[in-house]
From TrEMBL:
Family annotation (SMART domains): S_TKc, SAM
Coiled-coil residue windows: 210-258
Alphabetized InterPro entries for the sequence: Kinase-like_dom_sf (IPR011009), Prot_kinase_dom (IPR000719), SAM (IPR001660), SAM/pointed_sf (IPR013761), Ser-Thr/Tyr_kinase_cat_dom (IPR001245), Ser/Thr_kinase_AS (IPR008271), Ser/Thr_Kinases-Pseudokinases (IPR051681)
Keywords: ATP-binding, Coiled coil, Kinase, Nucleotide-binding, Serine/threonine-protein kinase, Transferase
Keyword Kinase in record: yes
Residues covered by the Protein kinase domain: 11-208
Name of the protein: Mitogen-activated protein kinase kinase kinase 20
The keyword Nucleotide-binding is assigned to this record: yes
GO annotation, cellular component aspect: cytoplasm
A molecular function (GO) term: protein serine/threonine kinase activity
Amino acid sequence: MPFVEIDFSELEFFERLGSGAAGTVYRALWKTQEKVVAVKKLLQLEAEADVLSSLSHRNIVQFFGAVVQPPNYCLVTGHRVDQDTVLIRNELSPLRGPSPVIHRDLKSRNVVIAADLTAKVIQQLPVSPACDVFSYSIVLWELLTREVPFKGLEGLQVAWLVVAKDERLIIPKSCPPLFADLMRKCWLAEPKDRLNFKQILDQLQNMLENESLEEETKSFLKQKDEWKKEIEEKLETLKNVRRELSDKEFQLREREKELDAREKQLVSKKRSSLHGNHDVNGWTEDDAVNWIQSLPGPELAAYSEVFLKNHITGRRLFLLTGDDLLQIGVLSVGHRKELLVSPVSQTCFTAVELLSEETPEMSTPL
């Protein structure tokens, strides 16, 4: 393996620092190295250790090694709390360039204040750097507003609002235009239309050189009591949309139940009428159509119009060959086989049923 393997017994765990979908992070002591580290305990060790071991950048937390003995899978990284702030534009450097690392989980909780970005790359689904650009815009919104994005909404609800309804976080009217423009260009619906990280860094550098922007930002933050109401009103609107969605989902489910019950009743009636007419040879065209509509699966039932068009009665059905079915439009070999077998099965079943009903004395041993 390209990374250092660390024995689990070398780690002494202290308090929990945080947790997420992939695992839990603890402050720990790497006893043999006498070093305080951050240890991320995982349920399984995937590609993350290999990716981290290949990265070396001042803006990425240092990766020391991994515990690979099951079930104690861990990633061991640096743990720094010796700075006051970190400028997030510097942390974007590993996410740009000709071969950028795709973070996929860039959010405020993963931007370590007084430390560096923890690179978290999971290579299970095809992604592009544009997903990190979108995430960066959300982090920027949090930094500006000091608010929780989509507060009170669950992850799946947010995903539905963003993707299906094209909703975005509200940008207060008094937000400095340069920041507002940057966020909008980063969360465009089409990934190819978003800024890339080189463009973001260039834009941030220009903003740093803008003398009036600092005063605009200070003025914006002082007005928080006013523009916070805009955010709360937007959130309430989104929650109403969510409630409407829940109501519609409930109505659709109830409607589906009703339709399902009606369909079962219809099939049951058709089967009952067929069972009443035991002789396939005596079936009318309507009987043949009722029979095919009672077969399981919508694919076979779709041939009912073909049967009507070709005036298929029970007798004709019983005499049909595979070539005949092909000629009238049953192109699927599997469907032809099912339609040829089913009438024979129906006749055999009926013959046995009739025999048992009409000759009960045969059940008595001679």
